[in-house]
Catechol 2,3-dioxygenase-like lactoylglutathione lyase family enzyme
Amino acid sequence: MNIIVTSIFVQDQDKALDFYTNTLGFVKKHDVPSGKYRWITLVSPNNPEGTELLLEPDEHPAAKEYQKKLFADGIPVTMFGVEDIQKEYEQLTDRGVTFTMKPTKMGPVTIAIFDDTCGNLIQLIQQ
């Protein structure tokens, strides 16, 4: 069994697509109409056949509440691995990304947390 798609709730699919591709550097894999919304998935440019990230509309009341509570409590919704967290932090900061936690050593890993502008906190990790 493999994880092929994982999703995050977003407030605005177009804004999320722009942020995740143009700011973070992910690559759009699918963008298919699906009723009122779209099935939009992204992949890492380093692994185009790897796990897809689905930009899921947060339209369901439970999704909105879940997203708001996690954000308010400072809890990241997912984690992205990076090779050099300090370099990534500096590049993203230069692109206007707001970090709620600068790179911080936590035992054998270093983590940082940023606001994706779409209602989520995302954690970066260097292992």
Remarks:
- Residues 61-72 form the longest helix (12 residues).
- The beta strands are 5-10, 27-34, 37-43, 52-57, 78-81, 98-106, 109-115, 121-126.
